[in-house]
C-alpha cells in the first residue's frame, strides 16, 4: 500500500493536466517499505527528457541524483515515482513494463482519460511484473 | 585501487579493481588478464546490474559504461523511464 496525501495527489493531478498532451513525471520521497505501507511525504517534479514526451517519459540521471540528494538530506527515502498517461491507459503500459528497473518501488500513474490515479510495485521475483497496490489518503 | 560503488536506493559495494579485472578477463575468451583494464560495465557486472537498466555517474556526471574505471567513487542510478 502507498499513502499519498490529498494535497500531493492534487498537485500531481494538476501537473498532469498542465502538461497535457505531454507526459509529466517526478519522484516521490517519504517512508519506504518494500512490502508494507509506504508513505509519501514529498513529491519532486522533474523534467520529462524523453524524445517523444507524448508517449514516453524519462528522468535525466543528473536531475535524478540531485533530487535523491535533496530527499536524503531531508531524512526521506525513495518511495517511488510518478508519471502521467494523458490518454490512458489507467495502468502500466507495455513500455512501462519493459523499462521498469526499481524493484519493490511504487510506480504511480495518473491517467487523465479516464481520470484515475493508481499505483503499482515493480516485482522481480519471476520475469518482472507490476503488482497493483492500494492508494490511501492521509 | 579500491572503488566504492554506491547503488542509489540500495547497497554500497567496496570493490578492489584488481579483482574486478581478473573476473573480467576470466569472462572473456581471449585476452591477457594482466592487460585487462576494468570498465564501468565490468563494475556493473560485479554488482549484478546491466548497463541497460542503469546510468553510471562520477562526480555527478554520467560516464560511458565502456570507459576504463578512473574514479574511486562511482554512483549507480537505476533508470526511471517508461511510456
From TrEMBL, chain A:
Tagged with keyword Ribosomal protein: no
Disordered: annotated segments: 30-50, 81-101
Gene3D superfamilies: Cytidine Deaminase, domain 2
GO molecular function terms attached to this record: metalloexopeptidase activity; zinc ion binding
Keyword Hydrolase recorded: yes
Pfam families: Prok-JAB
BP-aspect Gene Ontology terms: proteolysis
Family matches, as InterPro entries: JAB_dom_prok (IPR028090), JAMM/MPN+_dom (IPR000555), Metalloprotease_DSAMP (IPR053551), MPN (IPR037518), VirAsm_ModProt (IPR051929)
Protein name: Mov34/MPN/PAD-1 family protein
Organism of provenance: Natrinema altunense (strain JCM 12890 / CGMCC 1.3731 / AJ2)
UniProtKB/TrEMBL annotation, chain B:
Highest taxon of source: Archaea
Name listed for the protein in its UniProt record: MoaD/ThiS family protein
Organism: Natrinema altunense (strain JCM 12890 / CGMCC 1.3731 / AJ2)
